[in-house]
Predict the 3D structure of the following.
Amino acid sequence: MATKAFQKIYTKITQITKATCSLKATGVGYDELATVNGKLAQVVKIMGEDVTLQVFEGTEGIPTNAEVIFLGKAPTLKVSNQLAGRFFNAFGDPIDGGPEIEGEEREIGGPSVNPVRRRQPSELIATGIAGIDLNNSLVSGQKIPFFADPDQPFNQVMASVALRAKADKIILGGMGLTNDDYLYFKNVFNNAGVLDRIVSFVNTTENPPVERLLIPDQALTAAEYFAVDHNEKVLVLLTDMTLYADALSIVSNRMDQIPSKDSMPGSLYSDLAKIYEKAVQFPAGGSITIIAVTTLSGGDITHAIPDNTGYITEGQLFLRRDSDVGKVIVDPFRSLSRLKQLVIGKKTREDHPQVMNAAVRLYADAANAKTKLENGFDLTNYDERTLSFAKDYSEKILAIDVNIGTEEMLNVTWGLFSNYFKPEEVNIKQELVDRYWAK
Amino acid sequence: MSTKGKVKGIISNLVIVTVDGPVAQNEICYIETGNTKLMAEVIKIIGDNAYVQVFESTRGLQVGAEAEFMGHMLEVTLGPGLLSRNYDGLQNDLDKMLGVFLKRGEYTFPLDEEKLWDFKPLAKAGDVVEAGSWLGEVDENFQPHKIMVPFTFQGQYTVKSVVTEGQYRIFDKIAVVTDSEGKDIELNMTQKWPVKKALTCYTEKPRPFRLLETGVRTIDTANPIVEGGTGFIPGPFGTGKTVLQHAISKQADANIVIMAACGERANEVVEIFVEFPELTDPHTGRKLMERTIIIANTSNMPVAAREASVYTAMTIAEYYRSMGLKVLLMADSTSRWAQALREMSNRLEELPGQDAFPMDLPAIIANFYGRAGYVHLKNGATGSITFIGTVSPAGGNLKEPVTESTKKAARCFFALEQARADRKRYPAVNPIDSYSKYIEYPEFEEYIAKRISPDWTKNVNEMKTLLQRGKEVQEQINILGDDGVPVDYHVTFWKSEVIDFVILQQDAFDKIDSVCPIDRQQFMLNLVMDICRTKFDFSSFTDVMDYFKRLINICKQMNYSEYQSEAFNGYLKELNEMLTLETAQK
Ligand SMILES: Nc1ncnc2c1ncn2[C@@H]1O[C@H](COP(=O)(O)OP(=O)(O)O)[C@@H](O)[C@H]1O
Ligand SMILES: [Mg+2]
């Protein structure tokens, strides 16, 4: 960071903890940035002349006579069309060897959209993945995470969704990304020839974890620039939000705050909501859609991070390995797209809502049959049929490697219904059965 | 002269201000930063240090900034023109704000100062009046909006004059009253009230007993709520809290509906903005938005204002109740409000209670629910506030402070269950765990016998018993296997499934099925209970299943058809044939 001539330099630190250092200073604004021996820090508490700074990299090696310079501003990002195709770190500095960005300097973590100015999301995002498009259709302006164990191929699925989504810009916010995953994204985007539509903010496992806290705000400031100033459809990918939340807990822990559930800070809900609520359909046509990853530990969605996330986002896509077909599927039980009502049966064929629900109900019956089988009971003929249905359904619809159009998904499902069931077992409105039941 | 102060410390939105005069707990102050003023509320005072929670981001705020104390608590402005408006948690009119993004420190007036209202006097010179007395009324979206003596007035006043029938603006003088010392006071159509104080302009709060029809079968039939009653909907995320609340707010037989979107998703509020102006109130045929007020403090809006939002909503509800109207108040979600309290309590370094929530959380929740109710006004009219809040338990576990405290305060419990939601059995209200305490009130039983039919309660109880039986039988089948139990057991189980599929499940997104008026509910309950009372004799359990699946399918088609339409009656005929056939064979 360059120092400006008029800036006052302080050299007397009065207190140092793992995450913070304090000093006496005046004329300091809340949330303002500072450097401590060149390390970036932010004002988190002011009490009279005592100012407490949170040092992003941690305070290792900071001496009591470290040079502290206040920058007179909250964290910012320079925005312009030059962002496209570039890779940055958490501070918005280029990491791809290219030149600095010229553009308007904007504070990150800016204000919220007035709810009455929002437009209702209504544009279907087709991904070709039937577990998503049929059961959990995505809509532009939506915010939705993948819930997956760390060994699931969530970054791959997310990358294919991103490429098929027809977005004007894709903004990648990588938090605690392994170097391999970082290169994976770079490669995929490069091979698809879309690098000029991508902007990336990356914090890898090699960077200090607390720096991650800036990534979502950086990514979303860039997203707002393209969505508001250029009315573009912007897709923001945030991976992995669990590592973001972990960084929050590191900070609050080091600052001796009272933890709530799972040693997460009490403000976790508000902190995550501020990020996810940036997803919006703007009145002038631009939109921000957020697809995130929240890794689980042992599939536990009651942990504070996925739990709070689920309460904030508009559904979740739950990835799980189905051992019966040996594939990763989008689990129809725990997955949900809350905005699907806005498009299914409206932007897609009229039978979509009922077909989707009926199939999931039958899949649930299959789960019951499976329990029976495991408990050593005889299966009825109906049970047998649900099991066969479930296997086909898993393979032809739920598996993440399926890539077909929505009409075809519906036709395939009707086909499965008629293969295994009678119309009255499927519980669908008669007029739809009359029209679509595969004879 | 008002008290002034200077900022001494800043920790996020908790600011410490050194003051030069008296300040009151919960007093409002404005802190200057740059060229805006940030609104804040006093939450603690030590010596000459006032701890205030700022309703906005404190970014850039510096020590030494000036603060001015206003001499009053957080207030709402009450008067004609509240209906159809969209407010934030502090009652700023969101539509009046310019630009796409909210601006810090922008506060807008909640009413329309220029609109002319058709005023009709209700009081005349010489009348003795007191706080809450009706002086006149204006027509607000086809509802009688009473202009009342300000609730802050104490003792008795004599009306000196009331303006004649005609058109007036909210700030025009509409009456003059004289106090006991002979001083004249001019009144207009507006008044203010501090939101954290209950507005108690009534003589009596008897036990509520009149059914509040919601059109949702699992509520009205199984666990009804009453006018002036309280209820809560706990459930893990995605189990249908918001959908259920929206359904109730669309269909309920209320005069006024107030929706407090408290710390939840902005897009869900947008859904109301889009739908309500289009949809009609099934009871009056008018547009839903005409009877609705939205208080939107979504999760990305300032946390401190989130707490204020539920109080703002409740105070507006109390205002309309004082006019003798039936008000329905919904808050989604009260857990977010509790979390806002927790964030501040932690910042104040108060001794934490369970899960780091403030110690007095149960009292705060009980107090709030206590503000709802059915009341007799001083002039003999009645009014009510029915309050339904959602609760978002952490990890879906109902043994957590907000759920437990709410359970003590609310009389209806609509427990949403993950397993039901997973199986798309919507609304996912668990029929066995949920309850309505109102069914136990003799006055309710008497009322419902007259309103619906004398055998209604008996039918409902029989239905619940069968549901319970069905569950027990299912557990036995799960342990012993399909053929490990008598065929009869399967019949019992499938009868309970008929109740589940036909009465309890209801598609909130189907135009017809979503609204089920009480006469239709009565018809369907009678029909289903007739089926349940029928004796069947099957030779094997697979026959039972096949038969009941067909039967359920026909009943579901009835639910999807216009009541008593040709299609509806056609399915009914088909159903009856199926029943006679099966029973005649034996
Ligand atoms: N009565 C219902 N009929 C059909 N679908 C429903 C119903 N209730 C809930 N759902 C489904 O469940 C989803 C989540 O419901 P929502 O009310 O938003 O959950 P919560 O508020 O509990 O998180 C909805 O988007 C919808 O798909
Ligand atoms: Mg909800």
Chain A has twelve helices and 21 strands. The first strand of chain A starts at residue 9 and ends at 10.
